[in-house]
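Fold in tokens:
===
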Amino acid sequence: MGRGPGTSEEVDAYVARAPEPARVILSRVRDLARLVAPDAEEVISYQMPALKGAGMLVYFGAFKRHIGMFPPIEGDPALEAELSPFRGPKGNLEFPYSQAFPYDLVKRIIALRVAQDAVKARMKAR
């Protein structure tokens, strides 16, 4: 995964500061991101880890009761339906610590956002 100057260390620090169980989940989400979006750059934006391609792909962060993912996911009706139980305010996603973390859904979210980002980049290049 591409990394900007200093950003990998900043993401490392963010993950290290997170309380359990968030630390384990955040580390695994980073691993999934490297797998699904190997060319994405890790950055800190809005004081949380994020992935950047041509545009921002996803933000993910640790909160008191959940892991949050932003922005709201749109463009795949089947995935949207599966994510409906996790929708929080403004459509952002909240994955409660009290439930098993849906790593497969997160992998699909990242893959969708990478595909959407590629389309946007091609449209801009025209």
Q: What stands out?
A: Residues 103-125 form the longest helix (23 residues).
